[in-house]
Design goal:
Aspartate Aminotransferase, domain 2; 14 helices; seven-stranded mixed beta sheet; three-stranded antiparallel beta sheet; 2 domains; single chain; 380 residues; binds 4'-deoxy-4'-aminopyridoxal-5'-phosphate; binds glutamine; 12 strands; Aspartate Aminotransferase, domain 1; 14% strand; alpha/beta; globular
């Protein structure tokens, strides 16, 4: 009774990164690059700090950054958004997600998430008195079970959270999936939260099917992204949320008192860089696909089995031919004894299936790191 979030402990990302550091393991657990973002981008931060951009940004975000975001979503997704009323810059996608959920979820409202599910949704739902309903994705492809979703909707369903490309599986939603979703929510009051932080990391020449590409869905969606993933700057914590004006009004009521605004020089630097090199994001899929392919080639002859990720910078692997341990124990063992840290997948599931033996590796690493990790993983 003294805690509002009895189920919440320390996130697996902190736990595994700490364990990796403690044992000197190669850290392929928490998702972050071990290389720098574009120098021209980082220089703009220094420039703006040296030139007086050190006070509060406007609550909704620097106009130049909101304009660059609006230009991007029109160019990539054919979605016209109003810079003043529909784009809000936040302190990371995490803040945008928390603000969106807090803005619309009332006590007793149900929110549907799909397991395995990124870990920041449920605490945000529960601290607002909402009820988090976990629906399992269908293995092996981690697809949404539309029949199950349909039968799980109730008059209390307030929101459905979709994450594409999906962390941890790398699965992506197809155009047909978006149509299915539209069919299910039509004539309801259900809102959508699209966690699209890996929007620019989709492989094999496939498009990213953003909720913003689908006018009917966009009209009821908060769509969230993060510059941390796009520019290899996870430590900057700059993200944004796009939502129709009435939803953005509500989102901003929370954002205004949660953080008020986001670091000014970082926003200006990102805006400058987006303007200077708008096609940077076109090169990102090939950049990360090469890393995915290298990592997959390195572990091809290991005991792991896997299907190459369709997006994100994570690769899931099945270790059942290597060990009988449960995934949490296996990830610890791998870190402590074999010197490679990974994330167990069961921690993203409300009702983990004990026969699911999966761990997640982050391949957003330089070739040396991946080669070294690959060599260790092949010795298991
Ligand atoms: N959603 C997903 C699926 C993520 O993987 C992350 C990453 N870290 C976030 C949200 C949070 O992004 P940010 O670091 O910008 O808060
Ligand atoms: N999103 C990152 C991951 O999935 C971690 C973010 C965090 O550490 N909070 O690994």
């Amino acid at each position: 009774p003294t805690t509002k979030l009895p189920k919440v402990g320390t996130t697996i990302f902190s736990v595994m990164s700490q364990l990796a550091a403690q044992h000197g393991a190669i850290n392929l657990s928490q998702g972050f690059p071990d290389f720098e973002g574009p120098e021209a981008l980082r220089e703009r931060v220094t420039y703006h700090m040296a030139h007086g951009a050190n006070q509060y940004a406007p609550m909704t975000g620097m106009p130049s950054l909101r304009e660059a975001i609006a230009e991007k979503v029109e160019r990539l997704y054919g979605c016209q958004v109003d810079v003043e009323t529909e784009v809000t810059v936040t302190s990371g996608a995490t803040e945008a997600i928390f603000a969106a959920i807090s803005a619309v979820v009332r006590a007793g409202d149900e929110v549907i998430v799909f397991d395995p599910c990124y870990d920041c949704y449920e605490p945000a739902i529960e601290i607002n008195g909402g009820i988090c309903r976990h629906l399992p994705l269908t293995l092996p492809e981690f697809n949404i079970d539309w029949q199950l979703l349909k039968s799980s909707l109730t008059p209390r369903t307030r929101m459905i959270i979709v994450n594409t490309p999906h962390n941890p599986s790398g699965a992506t939603l197809s155009k047909a999936d978006l149509d299915q979703l539209a069919d299910l929510v039509r004539d309801t009051h259900i809102l959508l939260l699209g966690d699209e932080v890996y929007e620019h990391i989709v492989f094999d020449d496939q498009p990213h099917n953003s909720l913003l590409t689908h006018a009917e869905l966009a009209a009821r969606s908060f769509v969230v992204s993060s510059f941390g993933k796009t520019y290899h700057t996870t430590g900057w914590k700059v993200g944004y949320c796009i939502a129709p004006a009435p939803l953005s009004v509500e989102l901003r009521k929370v954002h205004q008192y949660l953080t008020f605004s986001t670091a000014t020089p970082l926003q200006l630097a990102i805006a400058d860089y987006m303007k200077k090199d708008p096609h940077y994001t076109n090169e990102l899929p090939a950049f990360y696909q090469q890393k995915r392919d290298l990592f997959c080639a390195l572990i091809r002859d290991s005991g792991f089995s896997f299907t190459p990720a369709k997006g994100t910078y994570f690769q899931l692997v099945d270790y059942s031919a290597v060990s009988d341990l449960d995934d949490v124990s296996f990830a610890r063992w791998l870190t402590v004894e074999k010197g490679v840290a990974a994330i167990p997948v069961s921690v993203f599931c409300a009702e983990p299936n004990p026969s699911m033996k999966l761990v997640r590796f982050c391949f957003a690493k330089g070739a040396d790191t991946l080669n070294q990790a690959g060599a260790r993983l092949c010795q298991l």
